[in-house]
Amino acid sequence: MTDATSTLPGTRTGEAGFGDYVALLKPRVMTLVVFTAFAGLMVAPVSLHPMVAFASILFIALGGGASGALNMWWDADIDAVMRRTRSRPVPSGAVRGDEALALGLALSGIAVVMLGLAANWAAAGLLAFTIFFYAVIYTMWLKRWTPQNIVIGGAAGAFPPMIGWVAATGSVSLESVLMFALIFMWTPPHFWALALFMKSDYADAGVPMLTVTHGRPATRRHIVVYTALLAPLAIGTAFSAIGGPVYLAVAVIMNLRFLQGAVAIARRDDAAAEADNYKVEKAFFRFSLYYLFAHFGALMVDAGLDRFGWGIW
């Protein structure tokens, strides 16, 4: 049987294992960073040598992991309060806070320098700014200060495809901005859906999420508004230089479904949500993950078709 106290804050004893240090890097978040950065690199109109492309993605991923370690170092106090995060390496006692800080800083330096050497210094500079934005602007400031934390802080998660594009081309362009904007506008409804069924965690930790400061009804309305603003941006990207028929079909289907889910959330009240344990909200949150992977996957499919001369437009 598992010891029930093993997930309580500060109850871990003994030396940290390799898995604990991997967990510090937030591997689930890193998966999204790698995928979107790879998409940005693949749809760019410049082909990189496979080794340069591999190294670029590796160091972008390392930078994303460094951001996660710095986030866990700073947020250890609130992570210890929230059920969803109390088993993380630092609040559980598996890894000391100073170790997380040292690892985050070391990996940040390695990632930025090596990306500059492997690809170009424009991409390295953008990666450095992304790490700073996530660790300092979002984690240390916005997250605990304003209910707009996710809206503004969402920029940190939106930079990876732009970094991938800059690694290939050496500069920012409209197409990279469109990929950035897609993630930036997707982030609020994605996280607010989570906040709807995790409100008590954020309230206990003193994090001013929209559900805590304005209540669930206002959050539901915000989800509809941002989803409605996201849809034309996502679909309109199909008619840019990186778009294509596959992306257009995916964008239309996914955004109609996303809007349907947002409206379903807005039509519910707290009593209905509590009665079925936030079934609709949790389904919307899960779908939001598929949403982003589908869009960037479709961009890569269209880019591949174009390179083989099979593109329609």
Short recap of the structure:
It holds the Pfam family UbiA. The protein is an all-alpha fold.
List the helices and strands and how they pair.
Blueprint: H1 18-24, H2 27-43, H3 50-74, H4 76-79, H5 97-118, H6 121-145, H7 149-169, H8 174-197, H9 199-205, H10 210-213, H11 216-236, H12 245-266, H13 270-275, H14 279-307
Fold and architecture overview:
- The protein is mainly α and 313 residues long.
- It folds into 2 domains: 14-172, UbiA prenyltransferase (Tetracycline Repressor, domain 2, Orthogonal Bundle), CATH 1.10.357.140; 174-313.
- It contains 14 helices and no strands.
- The radius of gyration is 20 Å and the shape is flat.
- The model is unreliable at 1-8 (pLDDT under 50).
Provide tags for this entry.
heme biosynthesis, 313 residues, flat, 2 domains, disordered N terminus, Tetracycline Repressor, domain 2, mainly alpha, 14 helices
